[in-house]
Structure formats: structure tokens, C-alpha cells
């Protein structure tokens, strides 16, 4: 617990340092990270089309507001929750720039604090970009999400994959992904600009997270992404044909849970 708290403070330091330049740097400096962010965005669109009611959505770990603004065009109200005050401020600034009226951002630590919603009042929850792995006790986290989710609602979870290719291979180069598991430090190693941060993470294999989620939810789909693009260096993707080839391979491999090679495990779930 002491090490978790220490590394969590490092995560807060990363969020504070990254908030103002996050949107300019994070997606574009690491190709595999960028295509994963777009993969999540596509999944949000595909998942929300099957939700019968679209009044309220919530984003857990909302950062600078990216997913919240995507959802703003799909739901009446969108709430973005993040444990970083700096990220919350940046999201509010981005909201003003975009003149979006139906997003609401607040600072709240979803690992320790109850969600500010009534029972069965939220139609869709997005907890993506590895957010599920930043919670030490997933049972309490899942129970709180289950409490606020409406019947017929859906949740997208994302977790770090302990069995991902990029976490299993000894590479002689820095792969084109912003974060990977550091087994020596027992933490997630994150590159942001010229700085390195170690932050707390609970990584899972696909069978492990399937077993955990099944205790609380019905699982509609599981995938991992991006398997191939995450292991090559950034300069590899200067070639348009190589970028497209790797993307097509990653999309084909996403649902191959026998290989489960992507650094992120993505789950779409709903009430039991």
C-alpha cells in the first residue's frame, strides 16, 4: 500500500506536468498510442448505438476531455471525472474553446471516492486508456459502477495486459508506445516528452480480467490492441504503407484472445 501511494503521487505529478500539452504531444509522439486512442473512439461510437437511452454518460479518468467531447454529441449530459485538478482545469478550458454546453468536469478519485450519481442513473460509462488498472481494489470499483449503471446500460473498461507482446519481448529499441510495464520497478513506465514517470498499475492477463469482470457484469466483448504496432520503433511508421499494413494486422488480431498481444485489454460489459 505504501508503494502504491508513492507511485500514485507520481501519477498525479505526471498528470500535472502533462495537462497543458497533453493533446499536442501524447497522441502524435507515439504511433501505437495514437492508433489505440482512435480504436477506443471508434469503439465508443459502435457501443453507444445499441444503448436504448442516451441521457447520461460518465467518463472515469477524463483527462483533458477527449472522450467526453466525443460523447457530448451522443448523450444529453456527460460527466468527466479525474483525480488530477490540473487535468480538470484543462478539460474545462477545452470545453470553452469548443463551446460545448453539456459536459461537466470535476476532480474526483474514482479509486477511493463514491461516484456522484444516484443508483441506476447512468446510461454509459467509459473507463478507458488503461484506467481499470489504476485501481488497486477492482471489486469495490466494479460494485460502484454496477450501482449507478442503468438496466440496458453499457461500460467500456480498459486494462493493461500483462501478456502483451511489448511486455514480454526484450527489445533493442524504444517501442512507439508511450507506456509499457516495467517488471523490475513493478510499475508502468510512461514517457512524456523527455521525462520518464513510474506510476502504479495492476496488470492482468485476459483470463484474469475475464474472471474478475464476470463476477459483476455480463461481458459482451473482449479485445486487445495494438499487437504489432506496439513493438516497433517510432521511425518505423514514417512509411505510409507500413502504417496501414500494421493497422490492418492489429485490427485482425484484436479479437484473437489466444494470442492476446495488445498492451491494452478492452472490455464492453453490461449489467448481469
Characterise this structure.
The chain is an alpha/beta fold and about 270 residues long. It contains 9 helices and 10 strands. It has helices spanning about 1-20, 20-30, 30-50, 65-70, 85-100, 140-150, 165-170, 205-215, 240-255; strands spanning about 55-60, 75-80, 105, 120-125, 150-160, 180, 185-190, 195-200, 215-225, 265-270. Strands 3-2-1-4-5-10-9 form a 7-stranded mixed β-sheet, with helices on both faces. β1 (about 55-60), α4 and β2 (about 75-80) form a beta-alpha-beta unit. α2 (about 20-30) packs across α3 (about 30-50). The longest helix has 18 residues, at about 30-50. The mean pLDDT is about 95.
Blueprint of the fold:
Layout lengths: L1 H17 L3 H8 L1 H18 L7 E5 L5 H7 L4 E6 L2 H14 L4 E5 L14 E6 L10 H11 E12 L4 H4 L10 E4 L4 E6 L2 E5 L6 H9 L2 E9 L14 H14 L10 E8 L1
Parallel strand pairs: 1-2, 1-4, 2-3, 4-5
Antiparallel strand pairs: 5-10, 6-7, 7-8, 9-10
Helix pairs in contact: 2-3
List descriptors.
272 residues, 9 helices, 7-stranded mixed beta sheet
Order of helices and strands: HHHEHEHEEHEHEEEHEHE
Radius of gyration: 18 Å
Average of pLDDT:
93
The total beta strand count reads 10
Helix content: 25-40%
Poorly predicted sequence stretches spanning 5 or more consecutive residues: none
Largest sheet: 7 strands, mixed
What oligomerization state is this entry in?
single chain
Report how far the terminal alpha carbons are from each other. 31 Å
Q: What count of helical segments does DSSP give?
A: 9
Shape: globular
Widest beta sheet: strand line-up = 3-2-1-4-5-10-9
Structural class of the helix and strand makeup? alpha/beta
Q: What proportion of the residues form beta strands (DSSP E)?
A: 15-25%
